[in-house]
Design a protein that fits this description.
The chain has 2 domains: 30 residues; 171 residues, no CATH class. The chain is mostly beta strands and 212 residues long. The N and C termini lie far apart (104 Å).
């Protein structure tokens, strides 16, 4: 009788162990490729290569050629793939690390572009940081603009503090509060605001302040 009880306990323990292992390994029909699964082991961001509702989360797009529409409130949207077309209505930040990507949006906190040959049209941005090359940015309002790459084009209606440290860039603003140029062969043109650059320590820059 004691042997039978021990055998029964062992069988029950084995079954319980198998149930726990199956649950931990996601063996009950979980789709490992689903877009809403965490992109990283810490679950800090989700992959939404097919688009969807951000629901306040950070998002990663890492599929080349993806066409993505992100709805709702997004955290930080990071695009690491090439040839992506993304529409992001509202976000805390947009980071573009790939190439040949186009981003359209209504409002974001920080727009950072490190890749080359990208374009962006976001109406309202708190801060634009262009570290890449051959990038085109259009917008209505940007509180701060920093251009450290080369061969970029930025066109906005209202700009706050603008810094151009790269070379061969073009910046056009209707209104510009302040300008600091340290790079060379840049063109900056604005209609109102600062009457002259705060500093121009580069060379061969073409600056056109109001009344010029």
């Amino acid at each position: 009788m004691h042997n039978l009880r021990r055998s029964g306990f062992r069988a029950a323990a084995t079954i319980a162990c198998l149930v726990v292992v199956a649950a931990a390994s996601g063996g009950c029909g979980r789709d490992a490729a689903h877009d809403s699964e965490p992109a990283g082991g810490d679950g800090s961001a989700v992959e939404l290569n097919s688009g969807g509702d951000c629901a306040g989360r950070d998002v990663i797009v890492n599929k080349d050629g993806a066409g993505v529409v992100l709805d709702g409130e997004c955290g930080t949207v990071t695009i690491e793939a090439n040839g992506v077309s993304a529409t992001v209505a509202r976000s805390n930040a947009v980071i573009v690390r790939g190439q040949d990507t186009n981003v359209v949006g209504g409002q974001t906190g920080t727009l950072t572009i490190t890749g080359r040959s990208n374009s962006s049209t976001i109406d309202v941005v708190e801060s634009i940081d262009l570290q890449g090359n051959a990038v085109s940015v259009l917008g209505k309002q940007a509180e701060r603009i920093s251009v450290s790459g080369s061969g970029n084009s930025v066109t906005v209606d209202d700009s706050g503090a603008t810094t151009v440290s790269g070379n061969d860039n073009f910046v056009r603003a209707v209104s510009l509060d302040s300008l600091d140029v340290t790079g060379s062969n840049n063109t900056v043109d604005w209609d109102s605001g600062a009457t002259a650059p705060a500093a121009d320590t580069g060379s061969a820059n073409r600056l056109a302040p109001p009344g010029a």
